[in-house]
Amino acid sequence: MGTPAFAAPVLDALVEAGHEVAAVYSRPDRPAGRGKRTAPTPIKAAASARGLPICQPPSLKPSAVCDQIAALAPDVIVVAAYGLLLTRAVLDTPAHSCLNIHPSLLPRFRGPSPVASAIVEGETVTGVTVMQMDEGLDSGPVVAQLETEIGADETADALTARLFELGAGLLVEALPDWAAGRIEARAQDDALATTTKMLTREDGRIDWTMSADAIARRVRGYTPWPGAYTRWRGRTLKILAASPMRQSAGDRAPGAVFESASAPICVAAGDGALAVIRLQLEGRRPASARDFALGNGAIIGAALGS
After folding, report:
1. What is the DSSP letter of 186?
2. Other CB atoms within 10 Å distance of the CB of residue 201
3. Where exactly does CATH 3.40.50.170 map onto the chain?
4. 80 close to 2: Cβ distance less than 8 angstroms
5. Where are the domain boundaries for CATH 3.10.25.10 in the chain?
6. What are 257-303's pLDDT values in tens digits?
7. Cβ-Cβ contacts under 8 Å for 85 (sequence gap 6 or more)
8. According to the model, what pLDDT value does residue 163 have?
9. Rounded to 5 degrees, what are φ and ψ at 208?
10. Which of 24, 41, 119, 234 has the fewest CB atoms nearer than 10 Å to its CB?
11. 53-57: long-range contacts at Cβ-Cβ below 8 A with a sequence spacing of 24 or more?
C-alpha cells in the first residue's frame, strides 16, 4: 500500500526479493499538470509495469473493501506513504501484521511531516523505522530501525527518497525473521515522542527576522512543499536554494537585499545574512541568483516581505 514515487523502491525491493505481491493498493488517480489531466499515481504506474493487480479504493472503511483485502489472505501488509487510514479490520487481516515504513527514528517525529521537521529543527541525524502498525499515530512497536546522517545541503525531497530506499532494504532484510517469529517488536517510549503537523502553504512564508541558519533550513526542509517564499513588488518570490553567509549584514534591516563579492543576491536576516543561490519570481522560470540579478537589477536594495 503506497502512493507517491518515493514508495516505488519498496515495491521493487519486495518483488526482487522473491516475495509474492498479491495486490498493490494506491490512492485514486488525481488530475495533475497544467492540463489537469488525470494521471496514474506513481505506485500504480510501477505496479502496472510489473503486471501486478492494482486496487484504488477512496477509503478502506467499506466492508466490501475489507472483504476484498481479506480474500487475498495476506501474510503481511506493507505500507509506504499510502495516505489512507487503515481500519481495525484491515489491521487485523494479515497473519503477520501490517508493517509501515516511517522516515524518522521513532518515537521522534511521528506524524505527516517527519523529514521536513527534522531538517527545519536542525537535526543532523535521522533514520527510517519499520514498525508494526496499530490504531495510533505512528505509535506501534518498532520492528527494525536504521540511522543515517542528514547531508548539509540535503533537501526534504532528496532525503525522503533516500530514506525510503534505505527503508526498502531494511524491510526486506527483516521480513523473513519477522515472519518466522525471530524478531520481537520493541514498544516505543511515548515519553520521548514528538509529533509533526501537516504543513500548509503559510508555513513556507519566510520570516526574515529569523536567523540566516533557520531560514536556510526552511528552504531545504520545505522543498518541494510548501516551498520557501517571500514577496517582492506584490509578487511571490520563491527561494529555491540558499545558504547562510559568514559575513555580517551590517546594520541592514531583516529582508534588505544587497550584493557582495561572494554572492550576487544577499538578504539580511535577524541574525546574519543569507546568500540566495536559486530563486523564482511568480510567473517566471527558476533562475540562478546571478542571472536573476542581471535581469532584475531593482532587486538590489529592495526590502523583501512587503
Report:
1. B
2. 10
3. 5-192
4. yes
5. 201-299
6. 999 999 999 999 999 999 999 999 999 999 999 999 999 999 999 99
7. 60, 61
8. 98
9. -70, -10
10. 234
11. 53/22, 53/23, 53/24, 54/23, 54/24, 54/25, 54/26, 55/23, 55/24, 55/25, 55/26, 56/25, 56/26, 56/27, 56/28, 56/29, 57/25, 57/28, 57/84
Residue 28 in grid coordinates: 485514486
Nearest to 83 by CA among 46, 105, 57, 106: 57
Kindly report the pTM of this predicted structure: 0.96
Give residues with Cβ within 8 angstroms of 118, minimum separation 6.
104, 108, 109, 126, 150, 159, 221
Contact status, residue 302 vs residue 232, Cβ threshold 8 Å: yes
Grid cell 495533475 is found at: 32
* Amino acid symbol at 147: E
Going from the first residue of the chain to its last (306 residues), give the mean pLDDT of each consecutive group of 10, the final group possibly shorter: 97 98 96 81 96 97 96 98 95 98 98 98 98 96 98 97 98 98 97 98 98 98 98 97 93 97 96 97 97 97 92
Task: Indicate the CATH number of 201-299 among 3.40.1390.20, 1.25.40.10, 3.40.50.720, 3.10.25.10.
Answer: 3.10.25.10
User: How far is 106 from 109, CA to CA, in rounded Å?
Assistant: 7
Q: Which CATH architecture has domain 5-192?
A: 3-Layer(aba) Sandwich (3.40)
Number of Cβ atoms within 10 Å of the Cβ of 267:
29
